[in-house]
Specification:
Layout lengths: L6 H18 L3 H10 L7 H12 L18 H11 L5 H4 L6 H11 L2 H12 L26 E4 L2 E4 L14 H21 L7 E4 L3 E2 L2 H5 L8 E2 L2 H11 L9 E4 H7 L22 H5 L1
Parallel strand pairs: 3-6, 4-5
Antiparallel strand pairs: 1-2
Length: about 290
Amino acid sequence: MFPEPSPRAKQLHERLAAFMDEHIYPNETTYQDQIESGDRWQVPPIMDELKAKARAAGLWNLFLPDSDHGAGLTNLEYAPLCELMGRSEMAPEVFNCSAPDTGNMEVLARYGTPEQKKRWLEPLLAGEIRSCFAMTEPDVASSDATNIRARIEHRGDEYIINMSPPLDLSILPTRIAYGISKLGMTLLTLGLAEEVRRQNVAVNSLWPVTIIESQASINRRLGTPAMWRKPDILVDCVLRLARKEPAEVTGRALVDEDFLRAEGVTDFGGYACVAGSQPPRLSWAALSKG
């Protein structure tokens, strides 16, 4: 069982839920309309309006565990707030809690020089600018994810990772940022698993073998319903993982269908969003090579 969140975390959750009901959900249509009718490179006006309200309400930079810059919450306390914000595509940015800004701010807050903090961290914390993640490789145009040459190699008792996202995105070309994010999450899994292994806590990452029906796949037009599976498949995986002893499965990057097959599941038809469809598999070749 998870421990109860602190009274402050509960209060923040209640305030956040109230803000979502009053300001976020009623303005989702306005946000989409402004995106579709305006300049794609400009922030929709409604976003700046809502950010000002969120900051005035004290619902700002909730992700930062550093109480000098953020809410000072633990990951356990922040998780329910993150889940709540995730119910709307626009919400994380409203509260200045959207990726990749969150990760970039954490890096700058922990390791940035005074000059870097002044130039980049302060305006990011204030929600005045946005940030990005970009990468390239020698000799190839790796902004196209299908061209990435980086690999993971098993040498003795160690793995050598040379900037290789575990997902081959040939099914979704141009989604390089998505692929790189999976690399970061997988590395985080490996690191955290080692840190808490002695405390008998398991840490695993779980990836879908198909596109999952979600607001992200709908809003970003990632395929069609015939290409999607229901989120239920991930829920079933998590429930099975939760029943296992921590030492039994930890530090793993798991793929939902492969994990369930190993657990004896053979019928996956019920997970399809369109009855009778066969959603295409994403390729996890880079991950399986590791």
